[in-house]
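Attaching the record inline, Q. Sequence:
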Amino acid sequence: MLLFAPVLVLSSGCSVFMAAKQPDKKNVELFRAGTSRSMILGEFGPPAVSEARDGKKYEIFKFIQGYSTGTKAGRALFHGAADVVTLGLWEVVGTPAEAVFSGDEMAYEVSYDKDDRVDQVTPLKR
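Structure, as predicted:
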């Protein structure tokens, strides 16, 4: 039994990998009036849609709200330990659980003032 423990740890299943590779947590507090466009782009990347209406720039940002590094590491460690204790049977529960808890899809529409600072935010999907 002791000889198989290292093999089980090194060959831990999909749930460990899935937990570690979950999307990162984004700072949605940046979606407020006064935030510069460059800060928004730095956190959320390029917008899904960018257009001008009535002389103002509007952009839609779509992303998956993920988890902090500590949360991802804790989940991965838990799955790894559960794999070892159950001799790999935990994967029957762990892998589907990680598939379900893979972050929340979010979308925000942002408009900017003449100085490229956020002047209005409309949550589209939370």
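The longest strand covers residues 56-65. Strands lie at 49-53, 56-65, 104-112, 118-125.

More tomorrow.
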